Amino acid sequence: MTSAPLSAEALEFALAVAMEAAKKAAHLIDQCIEQRADQPLEIEEKSSSADLVTQYDTMCEEVVLAMLQEKTPTYEIISEETRNDIPMTDGPTWVVDPVDGTTGFVHGSFDCGVSIGLCLNKQPILGVVILPRLGETFHAVVGQGAFRNGKRIHASGCTELTKSIVCTHTAYNRSEASVNSIMDINRELALMRVHAIRSYGSAAMDMCSVACGRLDMYFEVGIQAWDMAAGAIIIREAGGFVHSLDRNDAFDIEAKSMICGSSLALTKVAIELSAKYNYRAAVLES
């Protein structure tokens, strides 16, 4: 059953709550990276040796969930570590990645942060992403624009592939089919003479980079709802485009694939290359 839009007051309150929760989790991330020489991380593997979780993922999640549950007790919560099997409904739903880019975090890199999105009718309507190592806070509310550190941001508007910077990720699934697929895509992008191809470790960071014009396109298969909920609304409010891998007119937060870009002319190329090299099946089915 479709839910009614949230009031302006409810959205304002939700933004304040998400901001406060994200700041607390980001402080923990920053603190850990600064102190980890004296206190080694406890690292576990999830699906593979490239899919990691640390005690700080859990700590950050506890901080965020406690605040969301206290301040918005009627909202559902989906979160990567302990609430990843909660079904998405049409009601207000927080979608949380307490440490997006755990591999970067483990290695003390800049490509990690906190991502908190709010969905209604399975579509993002509010997002907060904090990248503590970059000192950047991104946020957006539906109909109100997108911001970085309080200043309005816009996607680049780039429509020409040869003038674009494109970002892709190597999936956690390191099967031969999966690796070959993304490498073939990157090879063709290079031959198409894109300005550059980048690969970082945080989906939320890369989506925000598209939103503020640092990147012109980013796409990935194997991505989860908590990776992209906040970033999707930030991109949309910055004038960019976000949609599922197999179509350019809809964004399915449960589809495990996503393309975002400064223009549909660019995302069309990603759709075509993904189909050509069987990207979705290679990652999800192999």
TrEMBL record:
GO terms for molecular function: inositol monophosphate 1-phosphatase activity; metal ion binding. The keyword Oxidoreductase does not apply. Keywords: Hydrolase, Magnesium, Metal-binding. Belongs to the inositol monophosphatase superfamily. It catalyses: a myo-inositol phosphate + H2O = myo-inositol + phosphate. PROSITE patterns: IMP_1 (PS00629), IMP_2 (PS00630). This is Inositol-1-monophosphatase. Pathway: Polyol metabolism; myo-inositol biosynthesis; myo-inositol from D-glucose 6-phosphate: step 2/2. The keyword Magnesium applies. Mg(2+) binds at residues 80, 97, 100, 227. InterPro entries: IMPase, Inositol_monoP_metal-BS, Inositol_monophosphatase-like, Inositol_monophosphatase_CS. GO terms for biological process: inositol biosynthetic process; phosphatidylinositol phosphate biosynthetic process; signal transduction. It is an enzyme of class 3 (hydrolase).
